[in-house]
Amino acid sequence: MDVETLTDPVAFLREAGDLLAAEPVVGTIPATVAQRLLDHPEVQRAQDWFAVVRDGGRVVGVAMRTAPFEPDPVHLLPMPEEAARALAEAVSARGEAVDAVSGDRDAVRAFAGALAAGRSVRTVEETRLWEVRSVVVPRRVSGHLRPATRDDLAVATAWYGAFAREAAEQAGHEVMHVVEPSREEMLRRIDAGVAWLWEVEGRVVHLTGINPPSFGVRRIGPVFTPAEERGRGWAAVAVAELATRTLAAGERCCLFTDRSNPVSNGLYARLGFEPVTDYEEVWLVGDDGLLDSTR
Questions:
Q1: How far is CA 60 from the centre of its chain?
Q2: Architecture of the CATH domain 2-127+280-294
Q3: Which residues form a coiled coil (predicted)?
Q4: Fewer CB in 10 Å around end: N or C, the chain?
Q5: Residue 221: left (phi > 0), alpha (psi -120 to 50), or beta?
Q6: 52-101: per-residue pLDDT in tens?
């Protein structure tokens, strides 16, 4: 196995493009992230990287490390276990500390096992990737969907930040990552048409994000309704409308849920989303239960 680490998103998309195009829904995260860095190079950090793993010259695995939060997981797409172990060896040889790994469950476990070095592997979150091919239209509710504008900056930023905290609360586990976008990042998302709001009589009650297309796939998220507005169908109609528009444009549509969250899993199943594959995030912890970065 040969591992190549790349910092240039153009080079990564060139090298990994055939694999990503073959399974564009499964590859939605690295494909979307690479496209964002390509479109906005100013947001790339010096420590960000992508990687391809080759077997006899053929790309059999893709990974990245670009998360702007701690503990900054390495993210893996499905790959043979020997490819995941080769990647772990390459990362370790660079002297790079890894406390967290996310992505395809089997690849994650092989990679984390190769890096454990006396630490235990603790599963902290299990997610499910869903795709919709035919939207089941929910009951009509009052209001309408509209793109967020710069006038919505404050509420959009706050709701993006609140999503991870409140989704974890619904799922009944600790918060893994909370990232509130900077003013500049949120403005970029608004200007790119990523953030959408459901509005009722001049009052915004819900936010749904949808990423620009990459390899013909759009990924929905976050999906957030403040607590006082829940149970009124805003999320269902917003997601259904964005998914319908995506499919009508000839693109595919997917999203992730926390497998522990019965609310979101039930909602998307009712809208016609079907499970594609399961991902997980694991942390490598010492005997004291702490990550190396927290010692």
A1: 21
A2: 3-Layer(aba) Sandwich (3.40)
A3: none
A4: C
A5: left
A6: 999 999 999 999 999 877 788 999 999 999 999 999 999 999 999 999 99
- At residue 295, does pLDDT exceed 50? no
Cα–Cα distance, 158 to 164 (Å, whole number) = 11
> Does pTM top 0.70 for this prediction?
yes
For residues 275 and 281, is the Cβ–Cβ distance under 8 A? no
Please state the domain extents for the chain: 2-127+280-294, 135-271
183-192 contacts at long range (C-beta below 8 A, 24 or more positions apart): 183/153, 183/157, 185/43, 186/153, 186/156, 186/157, 186/160, 187/150, 187/153, 188/40, 188/43, 189/156, 190/147, 190/148, 190/149, 190/150, 190/152, 190/153, 190/156, 191/150
List C-alpha distances in Å: 46 to 41, 42, 159: 11, 11, 28
Assigned CATH class of 135-271: alpha beta
Q: Quick check: do 2-127+280-294 and 135-271 share a fold? A: yes
Q: Looking at 61-70, 136-145, 194-203, which range is the least confident one?
A: 61-70
214-234: pLDDT as tens digits: 999 999 999 999 999 999 999
